[in-house]
Write a structure and sequence with these properties.
mainly alpha; globular
């Protein structure tokens, strides 16, 4: 992947991060993906490989990314999301993510 493409994908990733809301209610972390169909959810993030998922569609429609580029962004976004949730909620052996 070319350097200028990685720079653009890095900007997309930062925009996704900034658009991901978090809220703590009764000790649970609620979060939502940064696109209109999302609601705050207490569930841990799931790793979607489906190219028909809301995440893929959002990245294609809003940022003009290819499936390969979306996968690159998704891998980094997912890692960030898991770490953000873990930071906001202490990890125990009972957590499901």
């Amino acid at each position: 992947m070319e350097d200028n493409v990685k720079v653009y994908l890095g900007k997309v990733l930062e925009r996704l991060k900034k658009g991901t809301p978090f809220e703590i209610r009764d000790g649970e972390v609620y979060w939502a993906f940064p696109y209109p169909q999302s609601n705050l959810s207490p569930a841990g993030p799931y790793h979607s490989n489906s190219t028909d998922s809301h995440f893929y569609n959002h990245c294609r429609e809003l940022y003009g990314l290819t499936n390969r580029e979306i996968r690159y962004v998704w891998d980094r976004y997912y890692e960030w999301l898991v770490n953000e949730i873990a930071e906001k909620k202490p990890i125990s052996r009972y957590n499901t993510f």
